[in-house]
UniProtKB/TrEMBL annotation:
Organism annotation: Flavobacterium gossypii
Family matches, as Pfam families: CCP_MauG (PF03150)
Subcellular location: Cell envelope
Entry keyword RNA-binding: no
PANTHER family xrefs: BLL6722 PROTEIN, CYTOCHROME C PEROXIDASE-RELATED
Iron keyword on record: yes
PROSITE patterns: CYTC, PROKAR_LIPOPROTEIN
Keywords: Heme, Iron, Metal-binding, Oxidoreductase, Peroxidase, Signal
Protein name: Cytochrome c peroxidase
Amino acid sequence: MKYFALLSLVLSLLLSSCKEAVPEKNIKQELLVDLTKLKNEIILFQEIVFKEASQKEIVEQFKKSRLQYKRIEWAVEYFVPETARFMNGPALDEMELEENKFFVPNGFQVIEELIYPEYSPENKKEVIRELDILLSNAKQVEATFEAITISDDYVVDAVQQNVFRILTLGITGFDSPILNSSIPEAKQSLALVPELLLLINPKSKTLTELQQIVAKAKAYCDSNPDFNTFNRADFITQYLNPISRKLSAFQKEEKIPFVERNRPLKATATTLFDENAFDVDGFVASNEYKYSKEKVALGEKLFYDKTLSKNNDRSCATCHNPEKAFTDGLKTNISLKGKNLNRNTPTLTYASLQNAQFWDMRQLDLEKQSVDVIENEDEMHGSLADIHSKVSAATEYQKLFKKAYPKSEKSEAWQIQNAIASYVRSLNSFDSRFDLYMRGDTAKMNTEELQGMNVFMGKAKCATCHFTPLFNGTVPPNFAKTEHEVIGTPEDASGKHLSDDTGRYLFNQLPQLKGAFKTPTLRNVAVTGPYMHNGAYKTLEEIVEFYDLGGGTGLGLSVENQTLPTDKLNLTAAEKKALVAFMKTLTDKRYE
């Protein structure tokens, strides 16, 4: 009996030690396992290309490889964004304008262009070379993941951002521009959400609810796989927004702190469409420039003050009329001497949610933008030093300065810039019919407008440049960089000649930047015409027609560096009409 008791004890200890020897699963381990699977898929991809398999086999392996990438994308984009750009970024040169140089693109989107819609054996070496680079980047990511600590707060923040990425870049076709495999890829990315939270707390009640919503979202993707007919309005409101809210609820339930960051999108945003989701201080230069109501009051007075101009006859509001959503309604602005300027006056609404000002993006912030205009001899021809002297002598202004900058003994010139910029930062309402619909008021958009939203985010690919929900070129989900595009804008609506305005090229002599202009916001677009940097088009219908044809190239103009896809969109008359109807839902309440 003693022998059997001793044997039982030994077996019990052995079993116990075996259990202890098997490490409990954690997020980092699972991430590294998925990364190894990705490397294996890339190696298999190389073998298939090397043995000259059929295009069908090559495309299928490409899809498998990128689906595997989607399992780690949440972490790659969050922890190593510089490498992510060269794993699944746009197939466009990456600009380093400070150093006046560029880097050629690499990654899945480059490979996608090499294998589809037709694959030529002549591309074999190039595809294998791109796969070598992709594999090298995967190994670099692996080394990073092995070295870093991945805490729960970063996991939840990264997962929430990835849901926003699915909404803004995934289902819009941004990262699958040719194959249009966005819907199955969105399903793959969403599958990771409950899997990751399960490793944080498998007993969470919120997690159970989240699992149910994700399961329904995946089923929806399976039932609606076609890119052009996929109902994004329904998918966002019924699945993506609820998933985002459950993620926030899980974070609060588990008492996981929010990650502090200085970005336009607040870490506390439960969805991208919350009324206060965005922080106007996301692009301020330093803490002393931060927004306050007192600064806005001072800035508003300065904005409407004509003494800011040399001849005391023009204020900021002269060209940025509040009744026209802070535009002037002209094709191009008029100089102080009465001549037509080259550029159209852009809206100031939502201008704070981009890190580049002016059509040519020559200034990074609103502070520099205001003084640029004030001192421009064609616009206001004023002097910041003279303005400072004037306001310093005015009792009413000094009271406002004291309230706005209580720590300053006297007003300073930079405060004039900051106050005007603060007023511009106050012009973001987020109360359009579109906003209210996305927050649950389904009566705010009709069937045609919803069709237009689905065309905008789908077949027409508008949302791959005018990113939801800001509808400008500030790239989600980080919203840290504002993009430009070369679309081949003509001189006028006849479309016979290309505009001779070189845009960004004027300040950065890179051939890719000839004719490059900032992607403006489409919020309030129904009341901010004429359109384009030169006011070439008067109506939204003309704009839709221009894009439907394939931009400048589609008009028959020579635009060698056009970044806008040159293929025709082949929109139907009903789709074009719906697209215009949708854009009109982006008008803030005060301008309706």
